[in-house]
Design a protein that fits this description.
binds adenosine-5'-triphosphate; single chain; Rossmann fold; alpha/beta; binds magnesium ion; 11 helices; about 280 residues
Length: about 280
């Protein structure tokens, strides 16, 4: 799965807040890659630096954040050295984000179709917007009639599909999904995750999935990075990290998952079963 020419390569990224006694090393020297068409998960407890790391990819971390060191190579460009104008262009056209709360990203006074139209309009001049709206609704399995609905008339799952449609309007190379299903109930979570899996296959989208849920990791990710206190403490293929976690912290995170695949770890033997492993 390791890609020698990844679409995203983050090297030794350091992001700090405050200074002196108030210094917070939110991201403390992390390095990771995402290959083309690959789904990579960043997992870790609350405050471990997952969101800041992903926002930093297009320099969207909060204003107070200081980019102290590191490089972010994406599609042949070094993001931290780009101008605001260049970054804005990439945000809309090559890297898209979806977040936990779709409602907060949608404008309540406009219809869903209008918002998708805006997302298309910003990035693609000269496309037939009406047929593009219909195509995007179809891609995320929303009925056409919802184009005229307002956000408050839609369910949480429908809203998140709408956000995904808007994120895809610019045909991004990388989709960053920060806890995209946390606010949804379990069956709807499953539908949205299936949709993301389908998109990564069909559209050959690279996905950086941020979650604290190892169940999601096991279903969706090719590789996983485990973060703790701004650092990456473990990384590997999903199978390896889930079934042979090395780091104590990863083991603890795993223990918090109610159910994983009912498959024993690769290292399981009758002998070590006695050890209570
Ligand atoms: N605007 C800010 N000012 C100061 N510190 C901040 C700011 N935003 C984030 N931080 C700090 O940066 C660290 C990383 O935060 P981040 O939001 O990346 O965590 P996270 O892993 O996404 O957590 P969660 O799972 O809760 O979303 C935390 O210690 C947080 O307190
Ligand atoms: Mg977060």
């Amino acid at each position: 799965m390791m890609d020698s020419n990844p679409i995203l390569k983050v090297s030794n990224l350091n992001i700090h807040f405050g200074s002196g006694d108030d210094l917070v090393k939110a991201v403390d020297g992390i390095s990771f890659t995402v290959g083309r068409g690959e789904t990579v998960a960043l997992v870790g407890e609350s405050g471990s630096g997952k969101s800041i790391s992903s926002l930093a990819l297009t320099k969207l971390a909060p204003r107070a954040a200081k980019y102290v060191a590191g490089e972010i190579h994406f599609n042949g460009q070094e993001m931290l050295s780009l101008s605001d104008r260049e970054l804005r262009q990439i945000r809309g056209s090559q890297i898209s984000y979806i977040f936990q709360e779709p409602m907060s990203s949608l404008n309540p006074v406009f219809t869903v179709g209008w918002q998708i139209k805006e997302a298309i309009g910003l990035h693609q001049k000269g496309v037939d917007r009406k047929s593009e709206i219909i195509r995007l609704l179809d891609v995320v399995h929303l009925p056409q009639r919802l184009a005229t609905a307002y956000p408050h008339e839609m369910s949480g799952g429908q809203l998140q599909r709408c956000m995904i449609a808007m994120a895809l309007a610019c045909s991004p190379d990388l989709l960053v999904a920060d806890e995209p299903t946390t606010a949804l109930d379990v069956t709807v979570q499953r539908e949205i995750l299936n949709l993301l899996a389908e998109l990564s296959e069909k559209v050959d989208l690279s996905i950086l999935m941020i979650t604290h849920n190892f169940g999601i990791v096991s279903d969706l990710a090719d590789r996983v990075y485990v973060m703790q206190k701004g650092r990456i403490v473990e990384e590997g293929t999903t199978h390896k990290v889930l079934y042979e976690p090395q780091h104590e912290y990863t083991k603890q995170l795993m223990a918090a998952v109610p159910r994983l695949h009912p498959k024993p770890p690769a290292s399981f033997t009758i002998e070590n079963a006695k050890e209570g492993e």
